[in-house]
Amino acid sequence: MSEDSEPERNISGGDAGGGQAATFAAGEADTRAEAVVDRLGDIYWQKAYGGRDAFECLVRTILSQNTSDKASQPAHDALMDRYGNGGEEGRGEGDGDDHDLAAALAEADQTRLAETISSAGLYNQKSERIIALAERVREEYGGEAGFDEFVKTEDPDEVRTALLEMNGVGPKTADCVLLFSGGRDGVFPVDTHVHRIARRMGLAPPDADHEGVREHLERDVPAEKCGFGHTAMIQFGRDTCSARKPACLDDPDACPLADRCDRVGVDTTTGEVVDPAEALEAD
Ligand code: SF4
């Protein structure tokens, strides 16, 4: 396992949210999904996640919606520079514990915040959502520290329900907060890469929606491997099993998971690639 195999950027935001190295016992996998995650563990760094500030994590995932990490990372950095600890619009003494990002963003001027996060796209909508979330966190949890404690200590189902009630927070965002902040085992967030690959490989039904894929993966992958499985599958989707050109199209041996894959919607004879749900309709 070389340093090169470390995903440079992932949904957790690269270095800042990169998790801690962890080793999983590959052993005899009980399910195909677990075997796939174990194999990914041979390719990429194995990691466990958790410990990040919950409100900042929420803000980061809102910024990353409908855009790439490359575009959302500078927006996150600019936001933290201005509203974070020591920033010109930070709240508190600016020297540590009493700074509150939620308070700073609840009081932010929307136009100014939109301009700060403009590189992330949809900046008007995102700035409105972030301010509304900050107000809610301040009102219901007393600020970012109270919210952090809630996410890290309360029952995961209760936390998930509370997050989903917030405007702009969908299942993927809620699961990312539970995983990257709460460090909760058994949470396998499903983004577009995970949704595609799990159905292509036959780990979930071809017509399963995001929630359906999440249920299959969380049922079949041991809890302690779910977080790593999520980030590794995203990286695998970027560098090997992409939406339009999975590596096996040119060369079946180019994919290290070929022996565990049903290739639903991938026709290596004609070179045609369709969404697995379309392949089901065509049958
Ligand atoms: S065999 Fe092809 S479709 Fe299956 S995981 Fe590998 S690249 Fe993706």
Which structural traits does this protein have?
Endonuclease Iii, domain 2, mainly alpha, Endonuclease III, domain 1, binds iron/sulfur cluster, 2 domains, two-stranded antiparallel ribbon
Provide a brief overview of the structure.
The chain is mainly alpha-helical and 283 residues long.
How would you describe this protein?
- The protein has 13 helices and 2 strands.
- The chain has a two-stranded antiparallel sheet with strand order 1-2.
- It has 2 domains: 3-49 and 187-282, Orthogonal Bundle (Endonuclease Iii, domain 2), CATH 1.10.1670.10; 54-180, Hypothetical protein, domain 2 (Endonuclease III, domain 1, Orthogonal Bundle), CATH 1.10.340.30.
- Mean pLDDT is 86; it is low at 1-17.
- The longest helix is centred in the middle third of the chain and has 19 residues, at 123-141.
- It is globular.
- It has helices at 32-43, 54-64, 69-83, 101-106, 110-116, 123-141, 144-153, 156-164, 171-180, 192-201, 210-220, 226-239, 276-282, and strands at 20-21, 47-48.
- The termini are far apart.
- With 283 residues, the chain is an all-alpha fold.
- Bound molecules: iron/sulfur cluster.
- Residues 200-201, 240-241, 246-248, 255, 257-258, 261, 263, 266 line the site of iron/sulfur cluster.
Q: Helical residue percent? A: 40-55%
Give the biggest sheet: 2 strands, antiparallel
Separation of the first and last Cα atoms: 41 Å
Mean pLDDT: 86
How many domains make up the 3D coordinates? Answer: 2
Low-confidence region ranges: 1-17
Provide the structure class.
mainly alpha
Could you tell me the number of beta strands?
2
Radius of gyration: 20 Å
Give me the CATH architecture of the largest domain, please. Orthogonal Bundle
Q: Counting H and I runs of at least 4 residues, what is the number of helices?
A: 13
